[in-house]
Specification:
Length: about 425
């Protein structure tokens, strides 16, 4: 098979690496890719939102399967564009990707079908939101309705912060048109956990669990980011939790989308909060998480391309999904100043020390190749991932491996998985 992957971040590097491992695959392309993806795929200078060019490329190269990594093209309807030309593509159609594209839609869906989630209200008028907040219980969560690179969620401790948050999202448009509508949600407490699930429109099969660390600084301080590190599995995502989620969240979500005429085929990422009252949905995403993918795929024993094919063909029920009985930790190496402002273009060294067969991976996110070699080209630069027999060992291995990589302006959190490690 010839496979095209659309995207250019750490998630797409992990997908490209796993796809390239498949005995079913002869050739991998990635658009636009990055300096790390170049090692496992031929990178093509086409942007993820250039649907016409991507379709033309897929036809020209007789691509057998296109895999969409990113949220923007999915929400924009890239799958529909490929299918209209008779091309085989993995990911939800536009009318299903709305589950991520609009938080208001997903909250209303959960309310309508009785899927457990936090109490909420939707607002399109900033004054109405401000009036509502006057009587709301604090802390409270404000969410820009649309896509905001994983940063459009504000946790406000008091009314003053909440008022400022409304201004930031709805008036100052910090997240652009994503803030035309806003969800105001009760603040839930508990353990967070992420479940990535394969979906074929009817059946849903969860992968191993993972947990992200969204805040920029140690101790969950600082601004929200796209994710500063992950670990897998979560010791709190037990068999009992999984059984509850299958019965009350995963299967009902698939059935709800089908009932709405929005059959979901692709990856459904369910962000969960394990509350005292049981698991509840924090958010849905319509694709692999980043950097969750970087700890989930290295532990997957099953052929990823076979799983993609089964989803597209509606044959997921026939597949047995297996994971290694171990743990993985990913530490994101970022450019100092992320997620606000940072310098780019610094040379990176140390890649030669990473060997997948030894359980060490370096997934590229914001990198490119120029006359200086491989240089930094983004806020999140690399995802240093390592496996271990236990979470504690995987964490120690990952942090050891972060020392192999050198670049000016290198920044990371030092407590990824630490709370679990010490529990």
């Amino acid at each position: 098979m010839k496979v095209l992957i659309v995207g250019g971040g750490g998630r797409e590097h992990a997908i490209a690496w796993k796809v390239a491992e498949s005995p079913l695959v002869d050739k991998v392309y990635c658009a636009p890719g990055n300096a790390g993806i170049e090692e496992v795929a031929e990178c093509v200078p086409i942007g993820a939102m250039e649907f016409d060019k991507l379709v033309a490329f897929a036809k020209e190269k007789a691509i057998d399967l296109t895999v969409i990594g990113m949220d923007d093209p999915l929400v924009g309807g890239i799958v529909d564009a490929f299918e209209a030309e008779g091309l085989r593509v993995f990911g939800p159609r536009k009318n299903a990707a709305i589950i991520e594209g609009s938080k208001a839609f997903s909250k209303d869906l959960m309310k309508k079908y009785g899927i457990p989630t936090a109490a909420y209200e939707n607002f399109t008028d900033p004054q109405a939101a401000l009036d509502y907040l006057e009587t709301a219980k604090m802390p409270i969560v404000l969410k820009a309705d649309g896509l905001a690179l994983g940063k459009g969620v504000l946790i406000c401790q008091n009314l003053e912060e909440a008022r400022a948050g409304v201004k930031e999202i709805m008036e100052d448009k910090k997240f652009g048109s994503a803030g035309n509508q806003m969800v105001v949600e009760e603040f839930m407490t508990g353990r967070e956990v992420s479940a990535l699930c394969f979906c074929d429109g009817t059946n849903i099969v969860p992968m191993t669990s993972a947990q992200d660390h969204k805040r920029a600084k140690d101790g969950d301080q600082g601004l929200n980011t796209g994710g500063m590190g992950t670990f897998s599995p979560s010791p709190f995502y037990t068999e009992e939790v999984n059984a509850f989620c299958m019965e009350h969240i995963f299967k009902p979500t698939m059935a709800a989308m089908k009932a709405e005429g929005r059959d979901f085929v692709g990856i459904l990422f369910v962000g969960l909060m394990l509350t005292e009252d049981g698991p509840k949905v924090l958010e849905y995403n319509a694709r692999f998480g980043d950097p969750e993918t970087q700890v989930v795929l290295p532990r997957m024993k099953t052929d990823l391309v076979e799983m993609f094919e089964a989803c597209i063909d509606g044959k997921l029920a026939e597949k047995h999904l297996e994971f290694e009985n171990n743990a993985a930790v990913c530490v994101v190496l970022a450019s100092d100043g992320y997620p606000v402002s940072y310098e780019k273009g610094y040379p990176i060294t140390g890649f030669e020390k990473f060997h997948a067969d030894e359980g060490y991976y370096c997934f590229h996110a914001g990198t490119k190749r120029n006359e200086k070699g491989i240089v930094t080209n983004g806020g999140r630069v690399l995802g240093v991932t390592a496996k271990g027999t236990t979470l504690k060992e995987a964490r120690a291995n990952a942090y050891k491996a972060t020392e192999w990589i050198e670049f000016d302006n290198k920044y990371m959190r030092h407590d990824i998985g630490k709370a679990i490690d010490e529990a």
